[in-house]
Structure to design on (92 residues):
């Protein structure tokens, strides 16, 4: 069980990096999101970001939803990491 929690925490950390890359690339308006590798990055990250975009609309042309998305992702990652450590601690 600790291995599963650790794997999920690692996956969420990797997904965090993908989100950061996606957010940073959104600052460049000349990127063509329908071409590879940008299309793959968009297909992986946009469904998660769209969840938060439905709650927080852009204000003044600035999209603040990635801040909440990153915050939730980091909380989930932290919880899985703590669970993995707690399970590993109780096993010994």
């Amino acid at each position: 069980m600790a291995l599963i929690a650790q794997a999920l925490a690692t996956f969420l950390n990797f997904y965090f990096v993908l989100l950061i890359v996606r957010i940073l690339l959104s600052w460049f308006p000349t990127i063509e999101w329908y071409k590879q590798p940008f299309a793959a990055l968009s297909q992986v990250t946009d469904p998660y970001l769209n969840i938060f975009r439905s709650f927080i609309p852009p204000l003044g042309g600035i999209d603040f939803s990635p801040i909440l998305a990153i915050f939730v992702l980091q909380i989930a990652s932290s919880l899985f990491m703590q669970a993995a450590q707690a399970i590993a601690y109780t096993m010994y």
